[in-house]
């Protein structure tokens, strides 16, 4: 996580298209210092939960395919989370490692009750196969064993995931420097922590080490709040829904500046209140705010990472 923090800070200080506005951060921190809005994990009631290892298996499958819900305007994260939940409720072995290795695009569509091909469907299927195979090879087929191997460390869990599953290696090269974001690996740790309320499979002594999850909703919210400012050419691209290429300077800056800005916001709120604030909590608040705001325009990048 230190690498996520330091490399995203490097991007923020060398950024050409996105600026982090410290006055904007100060304003948000000032507003939040008295009442930091607490958003409950699963505030929408769409996730599977049985307080046991099957929930861990469900969350790993969910975060394996938790990316790119566009250009299909009707598709959203909620369809994914609830579709996988219904699947598991009717067939408890649906996410067994051997079955994960065999799913096809049409079968995944059927699970989600989706009438047409999913965005990046072939990649979603490939990543499910990858996770099924590696779970079988290294963790007796069980996501719970993977989590147990992290010995209550979220940072270790993220490192283990990056090591075992190439699809979770969310990094890029920016102006010659390697930048780490690890969005889906971090969100898996956060989902466990949220679902299990910091107990059992969600008991991570270093949950404070996690950063926010750099997706396409959070940068848009931060821009709306005046925390991020876009160069006019980038603002135009986003306004016109023009695709931004994965790995481009613009894309890396949008994601990295978001991580950096929220780290700064967190430090400031903690200083003002004398209480520790977690990036996970800020992320959930920003994300929940973003998805309730249908007019919010986000950047469009075809990516398997978010
Ligand atoms: N930063 C951040 N990004 C998040 C999430 C979540 C879901 N987390 C759930 C877990 C527990 C809570 O109950 C949350 O509901 C999804 N995403 C990202 O959003 C995008 C989808 O958006 P739309 O097209 O509108 O559905 C896509 O990139 C997806 O990867 C989050 O928490 N934080």
Automatic annotation (TrEMBL):
Please, which domain of life does this record's source organism belong to? Eukaryota
Answer yes or no on keyword Hydrolase: yes
Q: Does the keyword Hydrolase apply?
A: yes
Question: What EC number(s) are associated with this protein in UniProt?
Answer: 3.2.2.-
Q: Catalyzes what? A: queuosine 5'-phosphate + H2O = queuine + D-ribose 5-phosphate
Keywords tagged on the record = Hydrolase
Q: What class of enzyme is it?
A: hydrolase
The task this protein performs is described as: Catalyzes the hydrolysis of queuosine 5'-phosphate, releasing the nucleobase queuine (q). Is required for salvage of queuine from exogenous queuosine (Q) that is imported and then converted to queuosine 5'-phosphate intracellularly.
Q: So what family is this one in?
A: Belongs to the QNG1 protein family.
Tell me the protein's name: Queuosine 5'-phosphate N-glycosylase/hydrolase
């Amino acid at each position: 996580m230190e690498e996520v923090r330091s490399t995203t800070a490097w991007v923020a200080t060398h950024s050409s298209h996105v600026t982090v506005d410290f006055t904007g951060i100060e304003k948000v921190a000032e507003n939040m210092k008295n009442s930091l809005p607490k958003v409950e994990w699963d505030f929408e009631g769409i996730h599977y939960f049985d307080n046991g290892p099957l929930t861990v298996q469900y969350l790993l499958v969910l975060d394996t395919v938790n990316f790119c819900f566009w250009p299909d305007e009707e598709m959203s994260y909620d369809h994914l989370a609830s579709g996988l939940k219904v699947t598991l409720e009717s067939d408890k072995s649906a996410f067994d490692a051997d079955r994960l290795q065999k799913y096809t695009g049409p079968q995944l569509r059927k699970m989600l009750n989706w009438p047409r091909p999913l965005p990046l469907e072939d990649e979603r299927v490939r990543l499910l196969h990858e996770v099924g195979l590696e779970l079988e090879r290294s963790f007796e087929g069980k996501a719970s064993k993977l989590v147990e191997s992290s010995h209550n460390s979220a940072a270790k869990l993220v490192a283990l995931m990056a090591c075992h599953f190439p699809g979770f290696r969310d990094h890029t090269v920016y102006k010659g420097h390697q930048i780490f974001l690890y969005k889906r690996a971090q969100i898996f740790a956060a989902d466990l922590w949220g679902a299990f309320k910091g107990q059992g499979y969600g008991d991570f002594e270093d949950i404070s080490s996690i950063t926010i999850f750099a997706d396409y909703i959070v940068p848009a919210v931060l821009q709306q709040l005046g925390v991020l400012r876009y160069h006019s050419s980038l603002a135009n691209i986003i306004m016109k829904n023009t695709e931004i290429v994965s790995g481009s300077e613009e894309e890396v800056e949008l994601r990295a500046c978001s991580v950096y800005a929220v780290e700064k916001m967190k430090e400031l709120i903690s200083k003002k209140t004398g209480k520790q604030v977690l990036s996970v909590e800020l992320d959930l608040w920003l994300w929940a705010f973003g998805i309730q705001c249908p007019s919010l325009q986000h950047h469009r990048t075809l990516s398997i990472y978010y």
